[in-house]
């Protein structure tokens, strides 16, 4: 079969790209090694934080504001609840790069952000204990994305617009010519005019077929749900949060629909081969102790572990994304290396990839995410 575009990896970014391409009238084939949304890549665990005043740098703000609009459009088009406005509380020392960048991003883009002293934070959310030398910034408009629901929504809409999805099919080979690509799985061989590679933790394995190796490291990550007092931590009262502490960078979610408080550690983690089975949550001593030590200090009323899971980040050396055309092929677009903070952007990144292939130009500035920064 011949298509306009083949997407290798129909996860967070790829499924969104497939939808925007199909909606623009392109004949699209989405190929995924699993049946997305699934539990084997980087997009499971029900929820992801979205915040706009961006602690990782103001250069992300235009992309995340575009993403915000697209998440709203997706919710409307699919009639699914994709976003929950819980607000996000960022906490750290006043000289933390993350806190400083959150505040300067808000100032640069006139985003609503309440900068709060420790005492005011504790008064507002009595479930927290915050050292007096910490500061906080609360962004009331931000919140939580239902990540698996979002991928389901993009999948349904992409198929409704005529996209073909080939699940449980791992791409094993690619041949690229000047105006055409040939993609092979164990069962099929297909051609297209253009290609998107959005293969998450497996990106380098796919890109190797296109003579490209990017500085990407798949990393094992853990997160867990803890039983929590609903009166203090339910999502109507309690925000999602990020804490930049001396012990590490932690993030979490209020108890949504009584699921318990969800907590993860953003920094650290062991580099892994995504094709080997990952040690389940709890097999390493630090899986639990990392989280309980944090809770003990800042959430003294949350104790009992309910259950935990593992997931993968794909790290770049500067923890910035890679969103670009292949250096040798202008009909091959690549999105990879989302370094544990990419989901919130995936609507906009999918749209940007679609625009790059259709018109050669994206709606937002992608230069911070160019491949040539590693040269
Ligand atoms: C625990 C955890 C918490 C996170 N929290 C947040 C958060 O709060 N906010 C936020 O914005 N981000 C967060 N992230 C990061 C975010 O989820 C990821 O950046 C994002 O999901 C990456 O999307 P992706 O499309 O690159 O990868 P994926 O969604 O994993 O998609 C890649 C797809 O490629 C497929 N694939 C790979 N190889 C092949 C092949 N050869 N053939 C066919 N298909 C293939 C895979 O099956 C997979 O479906 C978190 C991540 C984790 C793990």
From TrEMBL:
Coiled coil (residue ranges): none
Cofactor: FAD
Gene Ontology CC terms: cytosol
SUPFAM superfamilies referenced in this protein's UniProt entry, alphabetically: FAD-linked reductases, C-terminal domain, FAD/NAD(P)-binding domain
Keyword Transferase: no
Residue ranges of the TM segments: none
Pfam families named among the record's database cross-references: DAO (PF01266)
Annotated ranges, domain FAD dependent oxidoreductase: 4-356
Swiss-Prot/TrEMBL keywords: FAD, Flavoprotein, Oxidoreductase
GO molecular function annotation: flavin adenine dinucleotide binding; sarcosine oxidase activity
Matching InterPro entries: FAD-dep_OxRdtase (IPR006076), FAD/NAD-bd_sf (IPR036188), MTOX (IPR045170)
Name listed for the protein in its UniProt record: N-methyl-L-tryptophan oxidase
Organism (species): Halolactibacillus miurensis
Gene name for this UniProt entry: solA
């Amino acid at each position: 079969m011949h298509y306009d575009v083949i997407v290798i990896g129909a996860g967070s970014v790829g499924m969104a790209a497939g939808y925007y391409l199909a909606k623009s009238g392109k004949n699209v084939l989405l190929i995924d090694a699993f049946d997305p949304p699934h539990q084997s890549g980087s997009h499971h665990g029900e929820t992801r934080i979205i915040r706009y005043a961006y602690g990782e740098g103001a250069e992300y703000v235009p992309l995340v504001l575009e993403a915000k609009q697209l998440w709203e459009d997706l919710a409307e088009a699919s009639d699914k609840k994709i976003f929950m406005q819980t607000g996000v509380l960022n906490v750290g020392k006043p000289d933390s790069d993350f806190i400083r960048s959150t505040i300067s991003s808000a100032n640069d883009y006139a985003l609503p952000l309440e900068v709060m002293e420790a005492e005011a934070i504790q008064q507002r959310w009595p479930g927290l204990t915050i050292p007096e030398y910490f500061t906080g910034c609360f962004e009331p408009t931000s919140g939580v994305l239902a990540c698996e629901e979002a991928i389901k929504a993009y999948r349904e809409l992409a198929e409704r617009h005529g996209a073909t999805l080939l699940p449980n099919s791992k791409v094993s080979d690619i041949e690229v010519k000047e105006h055409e690509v040939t993609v092979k799985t164990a069962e099929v061989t297909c051609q297209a005019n253009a290609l998107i590679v959005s293969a998450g933790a497996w990106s380098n394995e796919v890109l190797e077929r296109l003579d490209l190796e990017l500085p990407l490291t798949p990393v094992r990550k853990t997160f867990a749900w803890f039983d929590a007092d609903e009166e203090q931590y339910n999502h109507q009262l309690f925000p999602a949060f990020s804490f930049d502490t001396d012990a590490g960078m932690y993030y979490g979610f209020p108890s949504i629909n009584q699921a318990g408080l969800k907590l993860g550690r953003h920094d650290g983690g062991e580099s892994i081969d995504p094709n080997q089975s990952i040690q389940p949550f709890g097999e390493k001593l630090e899986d639990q102790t990392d989280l309980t030590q944090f809770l003990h200090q800042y959430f003294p009323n949350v104790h009992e572990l309910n259950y935990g899971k593992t997931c993968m980040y794909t790290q770049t050396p500067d923890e910035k994304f890679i969103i670009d055309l292949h250096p040798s092929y202008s009909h091959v677009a690549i999105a990879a290396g989302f370094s544990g903070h990419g989901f919130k952007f995936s609507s906009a990144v999918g749209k940007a990839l679609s625009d790059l292939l259709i018109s050669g130009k994206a709606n937002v500035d992608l230069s911070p995410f160019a491949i040539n920064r590693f040269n």
